[in-house]
Specification:
alpha+beta, disordered N terminus, Dna Ligase, domain 1, binds manganese (II) ion, DNA-binding, 6 helices, homodimer, three-stranded mixed beta sheet, binds zinc ion, disordered C terminus, 2 domains, Arc Repressor Mutant, subunit A
DNA sequence: TATATATTTATAAAGATTATAATTTTGTAA
DNA sequence: TTACAAAATTATAATCTTTATAAATATATA
């Protein structure tokens, strides 16, 4: 790796997908890769605007749509009007805690569901999504104690 | 059943959930029970407004939120900004065809996923959702023929 | 019937995403 | 380097979905 190209690997991933590695795109991708919080557009924007004061929210939308199309990121729609993004495109499930709002990953294998299934047998499956809702163990332990603040959505 | 109360059974279901069976609520519930199309708010409204000319879209939203809370209907969020509803609350999966937009049901049992799963073992799971995307068999057969119109979303 | 309560309606407000056009950046060739 | 063209970013307007609010209507009770 050449000196001064610390983001060489990230750039290369974008280039391989025919996406020009602009400063903003690298930063967004880097941000997604560095978190497991499944952030919303708002969260990505408000964090990155500190580093990039001229950043526009439209760029976040453009970039995420670009990544989605190139399958560099995955859209997570657990709640309506709260689109989240995940740079981990390996098959896995999501669990959203209805108390603290945190979204957890969990391992899952859905291949057997498709093969043994009557109707899906003749369908072409391009994308598989699974998510659960409930209360996470941390919140279960705090249940008799003080109420956790909010549910993470601000609603 | 008393004569003139053709919707007695539907009313009773609502009453059992402590929901007063108003004319509008009965019509919305009846509509949901009578379709397997997983309709959007817009579709429910535009169909029912023919029967109920004074109907307001706010009533549809109010009613569906009420049904959701009472677990008489299930929210399906496959695409962002396209919330759909399903009166079938039995556990099942959904498949959305990316070509014709139709949403199919498919049987699925997710209990084994929870029990064998490390992280979920200590969580309280209240709701399970699974949906796939791809191309349905009907569209696969038409693929070399004329292109099917739209993807059903109007986008 | 009179009155209180609940529901529906119409409309405004809020929030998220997309569309548009101007500005800025990047790449290329003279 | 400079000039030009293409692409990306930005700011902002427009659109769309959902929620909030208050007035009007319907329902239940005394
Ligand atoms: Mn994830
Ligand atoms: Mn269904
Ligand atoms: Zn929690
Ligand atoms: Zn199809």
């Amino acid at each position: 790796m050449k000196p001064g190209s610390k983001n060489g690997n990230i750039s290369d991933v974008l280039i391989k997908k025919n996406i020009k590695p602009s400063y903003q795109r690298i930063k967004v991708f880097e941000y997604l890769l560095g978190t497991d919080s499944h952030p919303t557009v708002e969260q990505i924007y408000s964090d990155l605007v500190n580093e990039i004061p001229t950043l526009s929210k439209a760029t976040i939308y453009n970039t995420l749509n670009l990544f989605e199309g190139a399958q560099l990121a995955r859209v997570i729609t657990i709640e309506e009007n709260e689109t989240r993004y995940d740079a981990c495109i390996e098959e896995h499930g999501h669990f959203k805690c209805e108390n603290c709002g945190k979204i957890y990953d969990f391992p899952v294998n859905l291949d057997n569901l498709v093969s043994g299934n009557g109707i899906l047998e003749n369908f072409k499956v391009n994308e598989k999504n699974i998510y659960f809702k409930g209360i996470c163990s941390k919140c279960l332990n705090n249940k008799s104690n003080k109420q956790e603040g909010k549910n993470g959505t601000g609603k």
